[in-house]
Amino acid sequence: MKYLFLCLYSTTLLSAEIPKTHMLILGGSGDPAGNSTIFDKALVHMSDYYSSKKRSGELGQSSIAFNGGHSKTESIKENFTNANSVQNFTESTYLHEIERFKTLMADPNVFKSGDQLLVYINSHGTEADTAPKTTHSIATGDAAITNFNTGSGATLVSIDQLIELKKIAKEHGVRLGVVDLSCHSGNSQSLSDDNTCVVSATGNNHYAYDQGGFNGTFSKNIERGASLESAFLKTREEDTEADFPMISSPEGQLIQNQIYNLFTPYLQYRSNPNPVTGSLAEKLTDELLKAATDPVYACKKNQAFDQLNKLLAEIDKDTAIVRNRSIFKTKESITDFEELKKTLQEYKNIQDLLIEQLKGMHVDKLQQKEEINSTNSYTWEELLKTNYEQLITKDQQRLNNSSLSDEVRKKYEYNLFIYTKAKETKERIIRENPGINAYKEVVANFDNGQEKSAKLAKRIATLEKKLYNGVYKKFVRDATESNPCRDFKL
Fold first, then answer.
1. Rounded Cα gap, residues 386 and 363, in angstroms
2. Maximum alpha-carbon separation in the chain
């Protein structure tokens, strides 16, 4: 009888259906023309993970809407053999695939309760969208991005489209994991709930980086059997860039809410212009201009710096391990707090000097606004830092496409009108105010080819990551409850 029971038990286990992991892979867009993109290496790693899930019988529905126009990137897509859908990433394919997965999740013959859906996003991303939107936007594959903050030059789609998807996932008992590896992806953290884990490559107000950054290394840590949480922590340890990766677990939210805004000004630096497009992705100048033109912000920034130092002292005290070595006591800290405070102070001193230099250049003029038409007005700063020639050329090229709908054609024609008027306004400002653009050289002259701001920001980021992971691991040791990021098994 005992033997029979064991046989029946084993048969039941073997016949139980394995929960499936379904995948929706999106992005790869916004790069200039060429054979490859910065997203290729990560896509190769994702194809390896896809293949491992397929071999194990754990792969469910899979779709990839990625890139469009870069031959090497297109060839990598061929690794996703037998995917249910393989397309280029456009606004229409993005919306179509989200709608398709909404329908599939409601079908019990396709998605079972206990299944998982991994939404993987890797594209150029913008700053936070304006209300009533809650997340941010990413670039599609029809054109290169020209402004890495606003997304100008590219056609954009909003991550808000996933809000309804996550509701349906929860209703049908499907775990949802959203991995947003784009710039400013911290804005996607608002999608999280008790059924949805969100991993972001960086914070709301920071860029994501390939190569040694979280964007470039997370995909290789998406390995069968790991959790989203463990992959996140492992990648954060390996990350060498001045980004700020985020996760929506309770531990992650607690740490991020305390330290992100305090560290933000000191993770900004001036990068070198893109050798292909000439575009400059940097936020340090904006940070300095804000402090130079807004006394309230400058005061708050100084208060926040004092608050950060107090917080670091508290964390050091609470997390340090004291060991007895013979008659002496030794202290082991989760990061080098003295070096962190020293580097932060050094960078703040430099920023303060640059802010005073900008004040002497009367940069308050940059906040003046110019009305382009009844619905569009821009500050001098916005006008001066925008390359309207590039934007005009791109939309003129788009209008040459005879297959455009009337609605889309009207949108591009309207853009051309606004860009042309803004270009004329910018030229008038420069003509009437010789030297008004000189403020842009303040940070460039400070770096002087040595990338001083980058070295300081990256040093601070390295120490911050050790602090973050140390505190996170302490919280996890004390945690007794599961969470969507720990429960999402890759």
1. 17
2. 97
